[in-house]
Design a protein that fits this description.
2 domains, 23 strands, D-Maltodextrin-Binding Protein, domain 2, 4-stranded antiparallel beta sheet, 569 residues, globular, alpha+beta, Dipeptide-binding Protein, domain 3, 31% helix
């Protein structure tokens, strides 16, 4: 020990004496070299850390979001409003779950409460095998009888479920406690989307009459089996809920969520909602309009197109002008969606040329110059009245009405179309309606010249509703009346196949058949998720609707940790 101590003392004295022997200039150089050496070591360590380590999600943090409205039916059987559907998707889980992944541009269906499922060769029979040890938030196990009860409740018209049409003619039975058989009257490629409906606990709802079911407090204080369970509901002085607090459900079938706590603040109107967001009362906002987004209030955004295909639908039965295909083509070439997308949506929308969200959009119709358009119209006999600025032929003016809903986006879009058509001598009158009036008095009765509106295309059933010949009467949604046997055959073919190559070929043929439909396709809007702070793991590609943003919320995370790559799971 003495010898060792003596060695280090002598070494220290030797180094000290050598440093003292250095000149002032040499000492500065020596100090700089030591400084460089130390920082070189630090840099090497940082390089090694970044080269051989990785950021991984870790549990922790609180997510806060603001939502418009007051929930009435946080119940997957009854949910119809945005807020009811939003919270239902947090609280409930279904047999399967439709999610987006970074590995695939297309959405995939994964088992949720089900461990696996199989489909018969004819595409009509589905067998779902439930996972063992799954439970509701109150600890009671999820069984096949809960699935059967949920579906049969949807099918019972006394409960007024908005999902009733999706389940007409379908039979469901429990084979045993963990096996469910569902039989369709005919193959339907989109059925698994329906099978993602949240499952109700029969032990809570099963003894209620329809009236009791609709009035139950469990509609606003629900118990499900989803990734989050309600911990607290705060109410204002009038007893109206204004804040829901959720805790992660540790026994969620797809794994414990990373974010342990979610707070949803509720607002009675859009003005208060936006103000709350701008005041940092919450961090995430899904109900924001593109023109409300700024670098000040939205430090981060996540965007994805919604399957809402907007266009100007032309009714030749009401206005014979639209029977002239050449005139329709001229109107199409004059209306410029790029101005709409820039001015109304601040770029948060895509131009479209057909109503099929599964297919890539083509380049939109080339726009003609005003002079070229004027020459074409002159050649068709539509001469410009220099006094009115409107074109006329045979005592008739080149004019029609545009009917649309009373929303800022649609009104502004209609005004831009009106201005663009006016530039070539086409007169339009805007007719603005409340949404209910538009649907009941205008769309159902086909009492419009042209209709500025959107088609919500979730699956093949929507294509059937909008374009099949059987839907041309007043109770259907084929509002232009455009149809053919070929269109019917192609849509019916889509119902029976999930094969991607066959679907793509069939959809391409359908696109060609619809190319002459009396519609001027305009845009597909983006869903914009505004964030004050980064939230990782959000993947919203291929959304069907806004509440689908929560389908992968169990994978979202706020906090991260650094681990060596060799230790990453």
């Amino acid at each position: 020990m003495k010898t060792s101590t003596s060695f280090f003392q002598n070494l220290k004295l030797s180094i000290s004496s050598r440093i003292h022997a250095l000149s002032s200039k040499e000492k500065k150089i020596f100090g700089a070299l030591i400084f460089i050496f130390i920082f070189g070591i630090i840099g090497f360590i940082n390089y090694g850390s970044s080269r051989f380590s990785v950021q991984v999600p870790t549990r922790g943090g609180t997510l806060t979001e603001g939502i418009l409205g007051t929930p009435r039916f946080i119940n997957p059987v009854l949910a119809n409003s945005d807020i009811d559907q939003d919270i239902s998707s947090l609280v409930y889980s279904g047999l399967v779950r439709r999610v987006s992944t970074v590995d695939s541009p297309d959405p995939i269906i994964i088992p949720d409460l089900a461990e696996s499922y199989s489909v018969s060769d004819d595409g009509k029979e589905y067998i779902f095998n439930l996972k063992k040890n799954t439970s509701f938030h109150d600890g009671k196990p999820v069984k096949a009888e809960d699935v059967v009860f949920t579906i049969k409740t949807i099918q019972d018209s006394q409960f007024q479920s908005p999902l009733l049409e999706n389940w007409l003619g379908i039979t469901v039975e429990a084979i045993d406690d963990l096996t469910v058989k569902i039989t369709l009257p005919r193959p339907f490629s989109g059925f698994l989307d329906s099978a993602s409906v949240g499952i109700l606990p029969k032990h809570i709802w099963g003894t209620l009459t329809p009236d009791e079911f609709l009035a139950s407090n469990y509609n606003t204080s629900p118990i499900g089996s989803g990734p989050y369970k309600i911990k607290n509901i705060h109410r204002d002085v009038n007893g109206i809920a204004d804040t829901y607090t959720f805790g992660a459900f540790n026994k969620f079938s797809l794994g414990k969520p990373y974010i342990p706590k979610i707070i949803i603040n509720l607002y009675p109107n859009e003005q208060d909602l936006l103000q709350g967001y701008e005041q940092d009362d919450f961090n995430l906002l899904a109900n924001i309009r593109p023109y409300e987004i700024s670098t000040d209030n939205s430090r981060f955004t996540v965007e994805a197109p919604l399957p809402r295909m907007f266009g100007l639908f032309l009714n030749a039965e009401k206005n014979e002008l639209f029977k002239d295909e050449s005139l329709r083509n001229i109107i199409n070439s004059v209306i410029d969606p790029s101005e709409i997308i820039s001015s109304v949506f601040q770029g948060f929308a895509q131009p479209i040329s057909h109503p099929l969200p599964e297919l890539t959009q083509d380049n939109t119709t080339a726009k003609l110059s005003i002079d070229t358009t004027a020459t074409k119209l002159d050649g068709m006999g539509w001469k410009l009245n220099e006094t009115t600025g409107i074109r006329e032929k045979g005592g008739k003016t080149l004019s029609f009405t545009i009917s649309t809903a009373d929303t800022p986006e649609l009104k502004y879009t209609a005004q831009i179309i009106q201005k663009q058509l006016r530039s070539i001598g086409i007169s339009t009158e805007l007719q603005i309606f409340q949404l209910n009036d538009l649907e009941n008095s205008v769309i159902k009765k086909r009492s419009f010249d042209s209709l500025l509106f959107g088609q919500f295309v979730r699956n093949d059933a929507d294509l059937y509703a909008f374009w099949h010949s059987s839907q041309k009467d007043v109770s259907g949604l084929n509002i232009t009346g455009y149809s053919s046997k070929n269109i019917d055959t192609l849509i019916e073919k889509l119902f029976s196949t999930s094969d991607k190559a066959i679907r793509t070929a069939t959809l391409s043929s359908l696109k060609n058949e619809l190319s002459n439909a009396p519609v001027i396709w305009l845009y597909q809007p983006d869903f914009v998720y505004a964030l004050h702070r980064p939230v990782y793991g959000i993947n919203i590609n291929n959304l069907i609707s806004k509440h689908d943003r929560f389908t992968s919320i169990y994978q979202w995370y706020i906090q991260t940790d650094t681990v060596w790559k060799m230790f990453k799971n």
